[in-house]
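Bug #77: duplicate submission created two jobs. Keeping one. Sequence:
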Amino acid sequence: MDNYNEKHSFTDYTVVGSTRGSDAQTLAKDFFGRVFAFMFVALAISALFAYLFSNNPALTSYLVDVSTEGRFKLNILGWLVMFAPIGFVMLMSFGFSRLSQGALVVIFLLYSAVNGISFSFLLSQYAGSSILGCFLGSAAMFGVMAVMGYTTDKDLTSMGRILIMGLIGILIASLINMFMGSAMMDYVISIFGVIIFTGLTAYDTQKLKRIGMGLQYEDVSKADTNKMAILGALNLYLDFVNLFLFVLRLFGRRK
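Kept job's structure:
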């Protein structure tokens, strides 16, 4: 199940004033190191569970029932797995101030595992070589835009607002297309999805850089800094995952 409906749960911290050169850059790099560490761990967990469930019928059988006509349909546990990621994101977002650092880490890792299981339904429809190719292509696009967002001096705030409105638009269009079942609309939605999440990668990276550089002005504990890094990792995780899923829908070769 695509996860763009979970996007942009990260609290928007405002940085006031100018930064102090090397000190701000060091703080930003340290903060980014934590963000990407959490993100890569989450992606690895999702990839592991997606692989296990997409290639093991015994595991998949816990999530689907086979009808008398031989068709597969989700059972209660399967539907729970499909919609649980939304609940995890809401819990992390709205419970940020109340949850401890350890609790937030556990929830994020559980979210990554459940997300991987939900991806397995989609990935099982595509050839392995096609999945790998789309993954590498998405990783390259994500990396380029992340570097651009980190290094550019241009303020991407206005672009971010437009992209978020576009995100809402494709969400609405996707809900409509669930009833229409139009292949052409699905194709157009996928094109806009790639464009939107490519842009959001740069926007979110710049926002996280500003948060990291602004830590010198705030009396933030190490635990709270790590909590902010987890939510930052969640944002970039969603950017990458959704970019990959839309690229796969456009260029993936089905079995």
